[in-house]
Structures are given as C-alpha cells and as structure tokens.
Amino acid sequence: MDLSLTSPILCAGITMYSPLKFYGPKDDKKITVGIIGIGGLGTMGIKLAKALGHTVMAISTSANKEQMAKDKGADLFCASKDEESMKKNAKTCDLILNTVSADHQVSTYMPLMKKNATIVQLGGVIAPHMVSNMTLMMGR
Questions:
Q1: Domain map (residue ranges) of the chain
Q2: Sheet-wide strand order for 93-98
Q3: Which of 9, 33, 62, 114 has the fewest C-beta atoms under 10 angstroms from its C-beta?
Q4: Which fold has domain 3-123+130-139?
Q5: Which pLDDT belongs to residue 124?
Q6: pLDDT surpasses 90 at 130
C-alpha cells in the first residue's frame, strides 16, 4: 500500500478507533457518538463511528462545516456557538470524542451528553478546563 495514502489511517485512525472501542458499548448496542472538531481527526472519527453502525453527531463552532460533516457520514450536526443548536441537541450523545487542540472549555459540550455519558479528551489542550461539579454530579 502507498504509505502517503494509508498513513492517515494509522495515526488518525487509531487515535479515533481506540476510544470508540474502549469507551463504546461492549455488545452490539448502537449509540450516538458526538465528534467535537471537524478537522483531520474529527472527520476520521465520523467515518469510523458511522462504519461501526452508530449515529454520529458532528460538533463544531463553525456552522459552515455542517455539509462537509454530513458528506463524511454525520447524521446530526451541532453548532456549539449557536444557542438554539445546543438546545436542540441537548442530552443526545452517549459518547463524545473531543479532538480540539486549541484552548477551549469542555463544559461547553456537557449539555450535549446524556446521563451516564462519557467524554474523551483527545486534543492536547494546555489551559485547564473549568468544569462545574454540579454538572458532573447531575449527569453522573
């Protein structure tokens, strides 16, 4: 195989596949997977989660990425800077994979999580995340 074509599968592929398998369902149950950040890792995550049979929500600060995300296989789209989009998609995700490496607050995305959901941080953020203990407690 041509490594220039397959190398993204090795890097981005395993980065996204590993948490999908580790934190995803251990049986054949299908879940809703949110992918934050629709760049290289995010688009690979959309493709893998969809290939595993899950419902996929692409989550981006940019509403302009909706069509591209859906072209990659996303079923749902949430513009995280749009209050109405956040309300519409509240409590939808069983698992969220956060690929964003720019400084941001993970608490922004917590309303998208169902009770007992999991969020996995994959982007290397330097600044600390501020998270409300009450939000964690109420969402288990």
A1: 3-123+130-139
A2: 76-79, 55-60, 32-36, 93-98, 113-121
A3: 62
A4: Rossmann fold (3.40.50)
A5: 83
A6: no
Q: Which segments of the chain does DSSP mark as H helices, in order?
A: 3-8, 14-23, 40-51, 66-72, 83-88, 133-139
Sorted by sequence, the CB contacts under 8 Å of residue 13 that are 6+ apart come out as: 44, 48
Kindly state the percentage of the chain with pLDDT values over 70: 100
Cβ-proximal residues to 82 (8 Å cutoff; 6+ apart), any chain: 63
CA–CA distance, 33 with 85 (Å, rounded to integer): 17
- Rounded CA-CA distance 43/89 in Å is 20
Nearest residue to 58 via CA among 18, 27, 98, 30: 98
Task: Report the pLDDT averaged over residues 48-65.
Answer: 96
Say if CB 96 and CB 118 are below 8 A apart: yes
CB 92 within 8 A of CB 76: yes
